[in-house]
Design a protein that fits this description.
Elements (H helix, E strand, L loop, with lengths): L12 E2 L8 H8 L2 H7 L4 H14 L4 H25 L3 H8 L2 H34 L3 H7 L3 H9 L3 H26 L3 H6 L6 H4 L1 H14 L2 H10 L3 E2 L5 H37 L8 H7 L3 H4 L5 H34 L5 H22 L4 H18 L1 H11 L2 H4 L6 H22 L1
Parallel strand pairs: 1-2
Helix pairs in contact: 2-9, 2-13, 2-14, 3-12, 3-14, 3-19, 4-12, 4-13, 4-14, 4-20, 5-17, 6-7, 6-17, 6-18, 6-19, 8-17, 8-18, 9-14, 9-17, 12-19, 12-22, 13-17, 15-17, 17-18, 20-22
Protein backbone atom coordinates (compact mmCIF):
# COMPACT_ATOMS: atom_id res chain seq x y z
CA UNK A 1 0.00 0.00 0.00
CA UNK A 2 1.32 3.44 -0.96
CA UNK A 3 2.41 5.57 1.98
CA UNK A 4 0.62 8.80 2.71
CA UNK A 5 2.33 11.98 1.61
CA UNK A 6 4.37 13.39 4.54
CA UNK A 7 2.81 10.75 6.74
CA UNK A 8 3.87 12.46 9.99
CA UNK A 9 1.62 15.48 9.30
CA UNK A 10 -1.04 13.95 7.07
CA UNK A 11 -4.44 14.41 8.72
CA UNK A 12 -2.78 15.72 11.89
CA UNK A 13 -4.80 18.95 12.28
CA UNK A 14 -8.41 18.66 13.47
CA UNK A 15 -11.03 20.95 11.90
CA UNK A 16 -14.45 22.04 13.24
CA UNK A 17 -17.65 20.16 12.45
CA UNK A 18 -18.84 21.14 9.00
CA UNK A 19 -22.46 21.33 10.16
CA UNK A 20 -22.10 23.26 13.44
CA UNK A 21 -19.30 25.81 13.70
CA UNK A 22 -19.09 29.41 12.52
CA UNK A 23 -17.29 30.56 9.37
CA UNK A 24 -14.38 32.28 11.12
CA UNK A 25 -13.67 29.34 13.39
CA UNK A 26 -13.47 27.10 10.34
CA UNK A 27 -11.37 29.61 8.42
CA UNK A 28 -8.79 29.82 11.21
CA UNK A 29 -8.66 26.03 11.50
CA UNK A 30 -7.92 25.61 7.79
CA UNK A 31 -5.47 28.55 7.61
CA UNK A 32 -1.79 27.71 7.66
CA UNK A 33 -0.65 25.67 4.64
CA UNK A 34 -0.97 28.83 2.55
CA UNK A 35 1.56 30.57 4.82
CA UNK A 36 4.10 27.77 4.38
CA UNK A 37 3.68 28.00 0.62
CA UNK A 38 3.72 31.82 0.57
CA UNK A 39 7.06 32.02 2.38
CA UNK A 40 8.55 30.26 -0.65
CA UNK A 41 7.46 33.28 -2.69
CA UNK A 42 9.49 35.58 -0.44
CA UNK A 43 12.88 33.87 -0.33
CA UNK A 44 16.17 35.65 -1.19
CA UNK A 45 15.67 34.77 -4.86
CA UNK A 46 12.55 36.92 -4.93
CA UNK A 47 14.41 39.66 -3.11
CA UNK A 48 17.21 39.98 -5.62
CA UNK A 49 15.09 39.61 -8.76
CA UNK A 50 12.52 42.13 -7.53
CA UNK A 51 15.18 44.61 -6.37
CA UNK A 52 17.14 44.18 -9.61
CA UNK A 53 13.98 44.65 -11.68
CA UNK A 54 13.15 47.84 -9.79
CA UNK A 55 16.64 49.31 -9.98
CA UNK A 56 16.93 48.73 -13.73
CA UNK A 57 13.39 49.44 -14.93
CA UNK A 58 11.86 51.28 -11.99
CA UNK A 59 8.21 50.17 -11.66
CA UNK A 60 7.74 48.77 -15.20
CA UNK A 61 7.95 45.13 -14.09
CA UNK A 62 5.14 45.37 -11.55
CA UNK A 63 2.86 44.02 -14.29
CA UNK A 64 5.12 40.94 -14.58
CA UNK A 65 4.90 40.42 -10.83
CA UNK A 66 1.10 40.76 -10.87
CA UNK A 67 0.64 38.32 -13.76
CA UNK A 68 3.05 35.88 -12.11
CA UNK A 69 1.15 35.86 -8.82
CA UNK A 70 -2.21 35.42 -10.63
CA UNK A 71 -0.83 32.41 -12.49
CA UNK A 72 0.59 31.14 -9.19
CA UNK A 73 -2.85 31.42 -7.55
CA UNK A 74 -4.38 29.44 -10.39
CA UNK A 75 -1.76 26.69 -10.26
CA UNK A 76 -1.80 26.45 -6.46
CA UNK A 77 -5.59 25.99 -6.61
CA UNK A 78 -5.08 22.99 -8.92
CA UNK A 79 -2.47 21.60 -6.54
CA UNK A 80 -4.87 22.00 -3.61
CA UNK A 81 -7.66 20.25 -5.51
CA UNK A 82 -5.44 17.30 -6.34
CA UNK A 83 -4.37 16.82 -2.72
CA UNK A 84 -7.76 17.36 -1.09
CA UNK A 85 -9.90 15.24 -3.44
CA UNK A 86 -7.51 12.31 -3.95
CA UNK A 87 -5.30 12.34 -0.80
CA UNK A 88 -2.38 11.99 -3.24
CA UNK A 89 0.35 14.58 -3.84
CA UNK A 90 1.55 15.65 -7.30
CA UNK A 91 4.74 13.55 -7.24
CA UNK A 92 2.73 10.41 -6.40
CA UNK A 93 0.15 11.21 -9.08
CA UNK A 94 2.80 11.74 -11.79
CA UNK A 95 4.64 8.56 -10.74
CA UNK A 96 1.42 6.56 -11.26
CA UNK A 97 1.05 7.96 -14.79
CA UNK A 98 4.49 7.43 -16.35
CA UNK A 99 6.98 4.60 -16.89
CA UNK A 100 10.04 4.11 -14.72
CA UNK A 101 12.66 5.86 -16.95
CA UNK A 102 10.41 8.94 -17.27
CA UNK A 103 9.75 8.91 -13.55
CA UNK A 104 13.48 8.87 -12.75
CA UNK A 105 14.19 11.67 -15.25
CA UNK A 106 11.45 13.83 -13.72
CA UNK A 107 12.76 13.10 -10.24
CA UNK A 108 16.29 14.20 -11.24
CA UNK A 109 14.96 17.37 -12.87
CA UNK A 110 12.95 18.23 -9.79
CA UNK A 111 15.90 17.51 -7.52
CA UNK A 112 17.90 20.07 -9.52
CA UNK A 113 15.04 22.53 -9.05
CA UNK A 114 15.02 21.83 -5.29
CA UNK A 115 18.74 22.49 -5.17
CA UNK A 116 18.28 25.75 -7.08
CA UNK A 117 15.69 26.73 -4.47
CA UNK A 118 18.07 25.77 -1.67
CA UNK A 119 20.89 27.72 -3.34
CA UNK A 120 18.97 30.98 -3.00
CA UNK A 121 18.51 30.36 0.72
CA UNK A 122 22.21 29.59 1.21
CA UNK A 123 23.42 32.67 -0.65
CA UNK A 124 20.83 34.93 1.00
CA UNK A 125 21.65 33.70 4.49
CA UNK A 126 25.41 33.99 3.88
CA UNK A 127 24.99 37.57 2.65
CA UNK A 128 22.81 38.47 5.65
CA UNK A 129 25.41 37.06 8.07
CA UNK A 130 28.11 38.98 6.22
CA UNK A 131 26.24 42.27 6.56
CA UNK A 132 25.30 41.83 10.23
CA UNK A 133 28.38 40.12 11.66
CA UNK A 134 30.99 40.85 8.92
CA UNK A 135 31.52 37.12 8.44
CA UNK A 136 33.31 36.18 5.20
CA UNK A 137 30.90 34.74 2.64
CA UNK A 138 32.63 31.34 2.67
CA UNK A 139 32.13 31.09 6.45
CA UNK A 140 28.49 32.13 6.09
CA UNK A 141 27.96 29.47 3.41
CA UNK A 142 29.44 26.74 5.61
CA UNK A 143 27.42 27.87 8.63
CA UNK A 144 24.20 27.29 6.68
CA UNK A 145 24.72 23.57 7.27
CA UNK A 146 23.57 24.23 10.84
CA UNK A 147 20.11 25.25 9.65
CA UNK A 148 19.35 21.53 9.81
CA UNK A 149 19.06 22.18 13.54
CA UNK A 150 16.66 25.06 12.85
CA UNK A 151 14.47 22.79 10.74
CA UNK A 152 14.45 20.08 13.42
CA UNK A 153 13.66 22.66 16.10
CA UNK A 154 10.61 23.94 14.22
CA UNK A 155 9.38 20.49 13.19
CA UNK A 156 9.50 19.35 16.81
CA UNK A 157 6.51 21.59 17.57
CA UNK A 158 4.23 20.04 14.93
CA UNK A 159 2.87 21.45 11.70
CA UNK A 160 0.28 23.75 13.30
CA UNK A 161 2.86 25.63 15.36
CA UNK A 162 5.17 25.83 12.36
CA UNK A 163 2.36 27.48 10.42
CA UNK A 164 1.91 30.09 13.15
CA UNK A 165 5.67 30.79 13.32
CA UNK A 166 5.83 31.24 9.56
CA UNK A 167 2.78 33.51 9.57
CA UNK A 168 4.43 35.73 12.21
CA UNK A 169 7.58 35.81 10.07
CA UNK A 170 5.56 36.91 7.00
CA UNK A 171 3.83 39.68 8.96
CA UNK A 172 7.17 40.85 10.36
CA UNK A 173 8.78 41.03 6.93
CA UNK A 174 5.71 42.78 5.51
CA UNK A 175 5.77 45.45 8.23
CA UNK A 176 9.51 46.03 7.76
CA UNK A 177 9.18 46.65 4.02
CA UNK A 178 6.07 48.77 4.37
CA UNK A 179 7.98 51.08 6.72
CA UNK A 180 11.03 51.17 4.46
CA UNK A 181 9.04 51.91 1.30
CA UNK A 182 7.15 54.70 3.07
CA UNK A 183 10.48 56.24 4.11
CA UNK A 184 11.70 56.06 0.50
CA UNK A 185 8.76 58.27 -0.65
CA UNK A 186 7.90 56.55 -3.99
CA UNK A 187 5.78 58.19 -6.69
CA UNK A 188 2.32 56.59 -6.39
CA UNK A 189 1.20 57.55 -9.92
CA UNK A 190 4.28 55.97 -11.47
CA UNK A 191 3.71 52.85 -9.40
CA UNK A 192 0.20 52.53 -10.84
CA UNK A 193 1.62 52.98 -14.36
CA UNK A 194 3.85 49.98 -13.66
CA UNK A 195 0.79 47.73 -13.89
CA UNK A 196 0.23 48.72 -17.55
CA UNK A 197 1.66 46.10 -20.00
CA UNK A 198 4.35 47.17 -22.50
CA UNK A 199 6.11 45.38 -25.37
CA UNK A 200 9.67 46.07 -24.15
CA UNK A 201 9.33 43.12 -21.77
CA UNK A 202 9.47 40.79 -24.79
CA UNK A 203 11.76 42.75 -27.11
CA UNK A 204 14.47 43.83 -24.64
CA UNK A 205 16.60 40.78 -23.82
CA UNK A 206 17.83 42.12 -20.48
CA UNK A 207 14.31 43.06 -19.40
CA UNK A 208 13.05 39.65 -20.54
CA UNK A 209 15.74 37.89 -18.51
CA UNK A 210 14.82 39.79 -15.35
CA UNK A 211 11.12 39.16 -16.07
CA UNK A 212 11.78 35.45 -16.41
CA UNK A 213 13.72 35.55 -13.15
CA UNK A 214 10.70 37.15 -11.47
CA UNK A 215 8.44 34.43 -12.91
CA UNK A 216 10.85 31.72 -11.76
CA UNK A 217 11.04 33.27 -8.30
CA UNK A 218 7.26 33.67 -8.07
CA UNK A 219 5.97 30.39 -9.51
CA UNK A 220 8.28 27.68 -8.20
CA UNK A 221 8.04 23.91 -8.73
CA UNK A 222 8.61 23.05 -5.08
CA UNK A 223 5.57 25.10 -4.00
CA UNK A 224 3.31 23.19 -6.39
CA UNK A 225 4.43 19.85 -4.97
CA UNK A 226 4.33 21.17 -1.41
CA UNK A 227 0.77 22.46 -1.52
CA UNK A 228 -0.63 19.19 -2.87
CA UNK A 229 0.71 17.52 0.27
CA UNK A 230 0.06 20.22 2.88
CA UNK A 231 -3.57 20.38 1.78
CA UNK A 232 -3.88 16.89 3.26
CA UNK A 233 -2.74 17.99 6.73
CA UNK A 234 -6.35 18.71 7.81
CA UNK A 235 -8.37 15.83 9.23
CA UNK A 236 -11.55 15.52 7.19
CA UNK A 237 -13.61 12.66 5.77
CA UNK A 238 -12.67 12.40 2.09
CA UNK A 239 -15.73 10.18 1.54
CA UNK A 240 -18.11 12.93 2.61
CA UNK A 241 -18.72 15.25 -0.42
CA UNK A 242 -19.76 18.14 1.84
CA UNK A 243 -16.57 17.96 3.89
CA UNK A 244 -14.46 17.71 0.75
CA UNK A 245 -16.11 20.78 -0.77
CA UNK A 246 -15.66 22.72 2.47
CA UNK A 247 -12.00 21.75 2.71
CA UNK A 248 -11.47 22.88 -0.88
CA UNK A 249 -13.23 26.16 -0.19
CA UNK A 250 -11.24 27.10 2.90
CA UNK A 251 -7.92 25.78 1.55
CA UNK A 252 -8.32 28.03 -1.49
CA UNK A 253 -9.16 31.05 0.68
CA UNK A 254 -6.08 30.30 2.78
CA UNK A 255 -3.93 30.13 -0.35
CA UNK A 256 -5.42 33.28 -1.90
CA UNK A 257 -4.90 35.47 1.18
CA UNK A 258 -1.33 34.39 1.79
CA UNK A 259 -0.37 34.73 -1.88
CA UNK A 260 -1.78 38.26 -1.85
CA UNK A 261 0.54 38.91 1.10
CA UNK A 262 3.46 37.43 -0.85
CA UNK A 263 2.61 39.67 -3.82
CA UNK A 264 2.56 42.76 -1.61
CA UNK A 265 5.96 41.93 -0.10
CA UNK A 266 7.52 41.40 -3.53
CA UNK A 267 5.86 44.54 -4.90
CA UNK A 268 7.28 46.50 -1.95
CA UNK A 269 10.74 45.12 -2.74
CA UNK A 270 10.47 46.10 -6.40
CA UNK A 271 9.21 49.58 -5.48
CA UNK A 272 12.03 49.93 -2.95
CA UNK A 273 14.62 49.06 -5.60
CA UNK A 274 13.00 51.36 -8.15
CA UNK A 275 12.73 54.28 -5.73
CA UNK A 276 16.19 54.05 -4.17
CA UNK A 277 18.34 53.02 -7.09
CA UNK A 278 16.72 53.94 -10.42
CA UNK A 279 18.83 56.83 -11.79
CA UNK A 280 20.45 57.18 -8.37
CA UNK A 281 23.07 54.49 -8.54
CA UNK A 282 23.35 50.94 -9.81
CA UNK A 283 22.08 48.13 -7.62
CA UNK A 284 24.84 45.56 -7.73
CA UNK A 285 23.80 43.37 -4.82
CA UNK A 286 21.86 43.18 -1.57
CA UNK A 287 24.66 44.96 0.22
CA UNK A 288 23.98 48.04 -1.94
CA UNK A 289 20.45 48.15 -0.52
CA UNK A 290 21.79 47.62 3.00
CA UNK A 291 24.14 50.60 2.74
CA UNK A 292 21.69 52.58 0.60
CA UNK A 293 19.27 52.61 3.51
CA UNK A 294 22.01 54.28 5.56
CA UNK A 295 22.84 56.86 2.90
CA UNK A 296 21.17 60.25 3.51
CA UNK A 297 21.74 61.17 -0.16
CA UNK A 298 19.46 58.30 -1.20
CA UNK A 299 16.91 57.97 1.58
CA UNK A 300 17.06 61.39 3.17
CA UNK A 301 18.36 62.84 6.38
CA UNK A 302 16.10 60.67 8.53
CA UNK A 303 17.85 57.49 7.39
CA UNK A 304 19.35 55.46 10.19
CA UNK A 305 21.27 52.25 10.72
CA UNK A 306 18.08 50.79 12.17
CA UNK A 307 16.45 50.64 8.70
CA UNK A 308 19.39 48.77 7.19
CA UNK A 309 19.47 46.37 10.13
CA UNK A 310 15.74 45.69 9.73
CA UNK A 311 16.33 44.95 6.05
CA UNK A 312 19.10 42.50 6.93
CA UNK A 313 17.01 40.93 9.69
CA UNK A 314 14.16 40.33 7.24
CA UNK A 315 16.61 38.72 4.79
CA UNK A 316 17.89 36.39 7.50
CA UNK A 317 14.35 35.43 8.57
CA UNK A 318 13.21 34.52 5.06
CA UNK A 319 16.41 32.60 4.33
CA UNK A 320 15.99 30.44 7.43
CA UNK A 321 12.22 29.96 7.21
CA UNK A 322 12.34 28.99 3.53
CA UNK A 323 14.63 26.10 4.47
CA UNK A 324 11.67 24.43 6.21
CA UNK A 325 9.49 24.44 3.10
CA UNK A 326 12.27 23.36 0.74
CA UNK A 327 13.01 20.41 3.05
CA UNK A 328 9.38 19.29 3.09
CA UNK A 329 9.09 19.68 -0.70
CA UNK A 330 12.28 17.71 -1.27
CA UNK A 331 10.92 14.88 0.84
CA UNK A 332 7.65 14.88 -1.15
CA UNK A 333 9.52 14.65 -4.45
CA UNK A 334 11.82 11.86 -3.28
CA UNK A 335 9.01 9.81 -1.73
CA UNK A 336 6.60 10.30 -4.61
CA UNK A 337 8.89 9.64 -7.57
CA UNK A 338 11.28 6.96 -6.29
CA UNK A 339 9.58 5.81 -3.08
CA UNK A 340 12.59 6.53 -0.86
CA UNK A 341 11.86 7.96 2.56
CA UNK A 342 14.51 9.61 4.71
CA UNK A 343 14.16 11.32 8.08
CA UNK A 344 13.73 15.04 7.40
CA UNK A 345 17.08 15.93 8.99
CA UNK A 346 18.87 13.47 6.70
CA UNK A 347 16.99 14.79 3.68
CA UNK A 348 17.93 18.35 4.69
CA UNK A 349 21.59 17.45 5.19
CA UNK A 350 21.75 15.64 1.84
CA UNK A 351 20.21 18.54 -0.09
CA UNK A 352 22.38 21.13 1.62
CA UNK A 353 25.61 19.13 1.15
CA UNK A 354 24.97 18.67 -2.58
CA UNK A 355 23.97 22.33 -2.96
CA UNK A 356 27.14 23.59 -1.26
CA UNK A 357 29.48 21.93 -3.78
CA UNK A 358 28.67 24.18 -6.79
CA UNK A 359 28.26 27.23 -4.51
CA UNK A 360 31.76 26.82 -3.06
CA UNK A 361 33.31 26.08 -6.48
CA UNK A 362 31.70 29.13 -8.08
CA UNK A 363 32.53 31.20 -5.00
CA UNK A 364 36.25 30.45 -5.34
CA UNK A 365 36.14 31.07 -9.10
CA UNK A 366 34.76 34.59 -8.53
CA UNK A 367 36.94 35.08 -5.40
CA UNK A 368 33.72 35.44 -3.38
CA UNK A 369 33.03 38.81 -4.96
CA UNK A 370 29.60 39.61 -3.55
CA UNK A 371 28.18 41.07 -6.75
CA UNK A 372 29.11 38.02 -8.84
CA UNK A 373 28.31 35.66 -5.98
CA UNK A 374 24.73 36.92 -5.78
CA UNK A 375 24.26 36.49 -9.53
CA UNK A 376 23.84 32.80 -8.72
CA UNK A 377 20.46 33.72 -7.23
CA UNK A 378 19.29 35.31 -10.50
CA UNK A 379 20.31 32.31 -12.58
CA UNK A 380 18.84 29.91 -10.02
CA UNK A 381 15.49 31.61 -10.65
CA UNK A 382 15.91 31.09 -14.39
CA UNK A 383 16.63 27.38 -13.75
CA UNK A 384 13.41 27.18 -11.72
CA UNK A 385 11.48 28.84 -14.52
CA UNK A 386 12.87 26.36 -17.06
CA UNK A 387 11.89 23.46 -14.77
CA UNK A 388 8.36 24.82 -14.33
CA UNK A 389 6.74 23.38 -17.49
CA UNK A 390 7.75 19.88 -16.41
CA UNK A 391 5.71 20.44 -13.25
CA UNK A 392 2.81 22.49 -14.61
CA UNK A 393 1.94 20.42 -17.70
CA UNK A 394 1.49 17.23 -15.62
CA UNK A 395 -0.45 19.18 -12.98
CA UNK A 396 -2.92 20.53 -15.55
CA UNK A 397 -3.25 17.14 -17.26
CA UNK A 398 -3.85 15.22 -14.03
CA UNK A 399 -6.35 17.67 -12.54
CA UNK A 400 -8.22 17.68 -15.85
CA UNK A 401 -8.53 13.89 -15.84
CA UNK A 402 -11.78 12.31 -14.64
CA UNK A 403 -9.79 9.13 -14.09
CA UNK A 404 -7.86 10.85 -11.28
CA UNK A 405 -10.30 13.40 -9.89
CA UNK A 406 -13.71 12.12 -10.99
CA UNK A 407 -16.37 14.79 -10.53
CA UNK A 408 -13.74 17.25 -9.29
CA UNK A 409 -11.81 17.21 -12.58
CA UNK A 410 -11.22 20.59 -14.18
CA UNK A 411 -13.84 21.81 -16.64
CA UNK A 412 -12.54 22.19 -20.19
CA UNK A 413 -12.07 25.97 -19.94
CA UNK A 414 -9.87 25.62 -16.87
CA UNK A 415 -7.74 22.94 -18.52
CA UNK A 416 -7.28 25.13 -21.61
CA UNK A 417 -6.37 28.10 -19.41
CA UNK A 418 -3.84 25.99 -17.50
CA UNK A 419 -2.18 24.83 -20.71
CA UNK A 420 -2.17 28.42 -21.99
CA UNK A 421 -0.40 29.74 -18.88
CA UNK A 422 2.15 26.93 -18.99
CA UNK A 423 2.77 27.46 -22.71
CA UNK A 424 3.40 31.18 -22.20
CA UNK A 425 6.04 30.38 -19.56
CA UNK A 426 7.62 27.78 -21.87
CA UNK A 427 7.76 30.25 -24.79
CA UNK A 428 9.41 32.86 -22.56
CA UNK A 429 12.02 30.27 -21.58
CA UNK A 430 12.75 29.56 -25.24
CA UNK A 431 13.04 33.27 -26.03
CA UNK A 432 15.70 33.66 -23.36
CA UNK A 433 17.61 30.53 -24.40
CA UNK A 434 17.74 31.50 -28.08
Amino acid sequence: MEKKSLDEINGSVAVPDVYKNAFWKKFLAYSGPGALVAVGYMDPGNWLTSLAGGSQYRYQLLIVLLVSILIAMFMQSLSIKLGVTTRVDLAQAIARSVNKPTRICLWLLNEIAMMATDLTGVVGTAVALNMIFKLPLIIGVLLTITDVLVVLFFLHFGIRRIEIIVLIAILTVGVIFTVEVCRANPNFTQIMNGFIPHTAILTNHSELLISLGIIGATIMPHNIYLHSSLAQSRRYDEKDPIQVRETLRFANWDSFIHLVAAFLVNALLLVLGGTLFFNKGNLGNLEDVFFGLKNPNIVGSLASSLMSLLFDFALLITGLISSITSTLAGQIVMEGFINIRLPLWQRRLLTRAVTLVPIIIIGFLVHFDENQFEQMIIYAQVILSIALPFTLYPLVAITGSKKFLGEHANPLWKTILGYLFTSVITILNLLVLF
